[in-house]
Write a structure and sequence with these properties.
Number of helices: 12
Structural class: alpha+beta
Strand order of the largest sheet: 1-2-4-3
Largest sheet: 4 strands, antiparallel
Oligomer: single chain
Shape: globular
Radius of gyration: 21 Å
Helix content: 40-55%
Length: 278
Amino acid sequence: MSSNAARATLAALYQARYGADAAVPETTSPLIETLLNHRSVRAYLPDPVSDDALSAIIAAAQSASSSSNLQAWSVVAVRDPARKARMAAWAGGQAHIEQAPLFLIWLADLDRLEQVATKVGDTHAALDYLEMFEVAVIDAALAAQNAVAAAESLGLGTVYIGALRNQPEAVAAELKLPPKVVAMFGLCVGTPDPAQPTSIKPRPPQHVVLHHEEYSRSAQAPGLDAYDAAMRAFYEAQHMKVRGTWSNHSAKRVRDAAALMGRDQLVDALKRMGFELK
């Protein structure tokens, strides 16, 4: 690709994220361009994801940082159609879970650390503290995002499934999870269906999220107004049934405890699965 063509491709990626007037920095790399090209994929070809590709994706996941190198995460690869169908039902009927040839379920896993402590004759009381659960959740998220970047670099598409937390005990029973292991989210992986293309979703201007030296609320307002306009256009172009703006949608999700779908189920499940969070 010529330098002019490469520059045009990079500009198109930045414009998709930030709008037609987006400033395009000189600094880039193949990895940055892969990340900029990320989009949620909810339609897949039936082509399987090979064991070799899965191994490479998990190697990338295991290359993520881990707090104190505790490696407090695991992942379950699901290919069985019947099991994927049950997962789809528990996640609110998301058909792309069934369609994706590979469904990865990312786990906050403190059971392995309990086993390790027991093996060396030590106690493991710290596993009951919220801090350790947060470590496990963050470890799982960091590993999963590495996996997404790796999968996309191989030409595969992905979409996260947070609704898996709506039925945590059903998922735990299905996967035979031991105590102190809980499913945090799923990830569909497969070859995107070219007949149902998806677009890059806009992001807020960088000054909304990037603060220099000190946090600034005042600098965010104009950017959020622009983002509302960008997301309204995106919803319409993608024929998404989202009413109002990004601000309307986001406010609805944080309105009250009832808006936290699966919250009570997850809290109860954590207690029954051996987590005594303090």
